[in-house]
Amino acid sequence: MSKILVIAEHLNGQLNTATARAVSAAAAIGPEAIDVLVLADNADAIATQAAQISGVSKVLTLTHAENAHPMAAVLAPQIAAVAAGYSHVFAPSTTFGKDLMPRVAALLGVAQVSDVMTVEAAHTFTRPIYAGNAIITVETPAADIVVATIRTASWKAAVTVEASAPIEVITTDVALPSHTRFVGLEQARSDRPDLQSASRVVSGGRGVGSKENFAVIYQLADKLGAGVGASRAAVDAGYCPSDMQVGQTGKIIAPELYMAIGISGAIQHLTGIKDAGTIVAINKDTDAPIFEVADIGLVGDLFQIIPELEAAIG
Amino acid sequence: MKILVGYKRVVDYNVRVQVKPDGSGVATDGVKLSANPFDDIALEEALRLHDAGTASEVVVVGIGPEDLTAHLRNGLAMGADRAIHVTTDAAIQPLTAARIFLKLVEAEQPGLVILGKQAIDDDANQTGQMLAALWDRPQATFASKLVIADGKATVTREVDAGLETIEVDLPAVVTTDLRLNEPRFIKLPDIMKAKRKPIDVKSLADLGVEAGEHLKTTHYAAPVGRSKGVMVTDAAALVAALKDKGLL
Ligand SMILES: Cc1cc2nc3c(=O)[nH]c(=O)nc-3n(C[C@H](O)[C@H](O)[C@H](O)COP(=O)(O)OP(=O)(O)OC[C@H]3O[C@@H](n4cnc5c(N)ncnc54)[C@H](O)[C@@H]3O)c2cc1C
Ligand SMILES: Nc1ncnc2c1ncn2[C@@H]1O[C@H](COP(=O)(O)O)[C@@H](O)[C@H]1O
Fold first, then answer.
1. Ligand closest in space to the Cα of B101
2. Size of interface A-B (CB pairs under 8 A)
3. Which ligand has the minimum distance to the alpha carbon of residue B183?
4. Is A54 helix (H, G, I), strand (E, B) or coil?
5. C-alpha to C-alpha distance for B111 and B169, rounded to whole angstroms
6. For residue B8, with 0-12 CB atoms within 10 Å meaning exposed, 13-18 middle and 19 or more buried, which class applies?
7. pLDDT over 80 at A70, yes or no
């Protein structure tokens, strides 16, 4: 029987909902137990949140001052030590999980499955390659621990329940390295919904033209209560911060409504939105590839259309 | 300080890769191959450190079949001092690539290894992290800024929450994100010069590493496509369509 360890992702004392998505993937295996491991300097609040994810058997907390920030070199040896009792170790395929899990896998001497889309069997998964142009089925050796990152856009978050799973404090005696030190995190301050979990997202591309012009994107997003994303070209041009990039090498998202404005629809961008419910495209070029995948397309100048849209929304 | 750079050859990012009808693989015959974009960025960063006098030697590493030579010559033409070609016809998975890099690291003793954050064929995003683990050295992944001073690297990383800065002791592994730099173009005279630069050829047996198929790919499928939707003529019609779908 499978026993699965899910690594909790958190920031500023808040559990990231990506964790509950990884729990959903774990549940798809039909395991005997799903335990969530919280590594932090102060784990209490996070553990309480993790304990309420449906399907979780228990929450383990491993606290160290060194665990205050998610440094892979510090966390990986602790996870590798705890992993001994498990058949699978999962984390979300966010920058947190992508940084951390290959280090865990290498310490365990096993391969890693990146970006799990579906679980076919306990050791068989599907995952995307070539910017999502192909989906492969991969099998991991039956004797090895499975280390995997979970493509969050492919999984709904396991629901939160009233009842709490037990929380257990654990310790390890592994030596923690001092060669890697946290200096700082520059977080874009925003009251808007988080791009990775927002049900509506409005994205702007190079067509928006400038940082100043990007205000029209923010304004429409606020009208819709939407998160804001961008193409790589818009980020590269300095219209908006890098954490807004959607795509193969940015964030992979699955909102109910995605509006691509002044975005041509390069394959690298599309791979980030293919799980969106409804895609709306606004572009002045009738031949823009974005219209090939858009559920609703509107050809025209975004600077004219956005104000009209806002008026029509009311 | 010597810098080792991962320089993988992949299907060019402009190619829309097709899955073979029988699900046995993707059609790569005759498609354009190029340097992995993240590896061009890795090489550019190493060359800038070389130009600034921080690095004394830049070595590009390619793992792949016999005909990888022309690709490695491009890396040399871009400015690398020499190349190491690890020859193999097997598809090399990240864990094996990391084990190969570890052997090269032991032989070359670099102060810094710069790899791409991901190869755009397997999209694995693993090799750098695995190498750092096996080497028991720091990793700074998804770098958008790199400053080397006093035996340390200060690295700004593109993470989901924003920009994280960490400090790591050297030697270390850095993996590149897109905004670290803009790679230079290769100049014609440099292509001539590159012909005289050395390429050191090694087999997996020379390094004592087995190819190892850790993950077995049993099937390839085309992604589920999205069907073409409707076109509307104005903002009012768009809003009506969204209301229709219950999205507004
Ligand atoms: C390794 C690699 C990884 C990449 N990863 C990503 C990624 O993660 N995410 C990503 O997005 N890209 C990524 N890219 C880049 C991608 O290939 C495209 O270059 C990029 O997505 C283009 O962005 P864009 O659509 O905003 O710009 P463009 O392609 O320049 O398109 C701009 C669009 O705006 C339209 N437009 C202009 N003015 C107006 C107006 N007034 N009104 C309406 N429409 C207008 C134009 O018709 C055009 O279609 C990657 C590339 C590489 C090589
Ligand atoms: N066959 C290879 N040859 C050279 N470098 C490689 C090879 N495989 C992986 N790498 C390096 O590792 C990085 C990440 O690859 P991956 O983990 O496969 O996504 C690449 O950008 C390269 O720098």
1. 2
2. 251
3. 1
4. coil
5. 10
6. buried
7. yes
* pLDDT tens by residue, A78-112: 999 999 999 999 999 999 999 999 999 999 999 99
Find the CB nearest B215 among A138, A196, A235: A138
Ligand 1: centre distance to CA B125 (Å): 23
Q: Is A56 exposed, middle or buried (0-12, 13-18, 19+ CB in 10 A)?
A: buried
Kindly state the helix (H) or strand (E) to which residue B105 belongs, with its residue range.
helix B94-108
Q: Which amino acid is at A112?
A: Q
Choose among B41, B35, B81: nearest CA to B60.
B81
DSSP string, B233-245: SSHHHHHHHHHHT
Q: Say how many Å lie between the CA of residue B75 and the centre of ligand 2.
A: 15
Check if the beta carbon of residue B141 is closer than 8 Å to that of residue A180. Answer: no
Give the three-class secondary structure for A292.
Answer: helix
Amino acid making up residue A48: T
Residue contact B166–A296, C-beta within 8 A? no
Tokens of B33: 């191959």
Which of the ligands is closest to the CA of residue B123?
Answer: 2
Pocket lining: B119 vs ligand 2, CB cutoff 6 Å: yes
Residue A131 CA to ligand 1 center (angstroms) comes to 15
Could you tell me if B130 and B94 are in contact, meaning their C-beta atoms sit under 8 angstroms apart?
yes
Chain B: residue whose CA lies nearest to A123: B215
Say if residue A140 is exposed, middle or buried (CB neighbours under 10 Å; 0-12, 13-18, 19+): buried
Distance of alpha carbon A240 from alpha carbon A208, whole angstroms: 11
CA angle B154, B157, B162 (to 5 degrees): 130
Share of chain B above pLDDT 90, in %: 96
A148-157, B50-59, B90-99, B226-235: least confident range? B226-235
Q: Which of residues 51-110 of A touch B (CB under 8 A)?
A: 71-73, 76, 94-96, 98-107, 110
Could you give the dihedral angle defined by the CA atoms of residues B74, B75, B80 and B83, in that order, rounded to the nearest 10 degrees? -100
Check if B79 has its Cβ closer than 6 Å to any atom of ligand 2.
no
Kind and range of the H or E element at A4? strand A3-7
Per-residue b or e along A259-296, where b marks 16 or more CB atoms closer than 10 Å to that residue's CB:
bbbbbbbbbbbbbbbbbbebbbbbbeeeebbbbbbbbb
CB A151 within 8 A of CB A116: yes
Query: Cα of A235 to ligand 1 centre, how many Å?
Result: 10
pLDDT by residue (tens digit) across B3-40? 999 999 999 999 999 999 999 999 998 999 999 999 99
Q: How would residue A154 be classed by pLDDT, with cut points 50, 70 and 90?
A: very high
Ligand 2 touching residue B177 (CB < 6 A): no
> For residue B178, what are its two tokens?
């897109």
What is the structure's pLDDT at A190?
81
From the list A12, A16, A87, the residue with the least C-alpha distance to A50 is A16
Alpha-carbon span B119 to B121, nearest angstrom: 6
State the DSSP H helix or E strand holding residue A149, giving kind and residue range, or none if neither.
strand A146-150
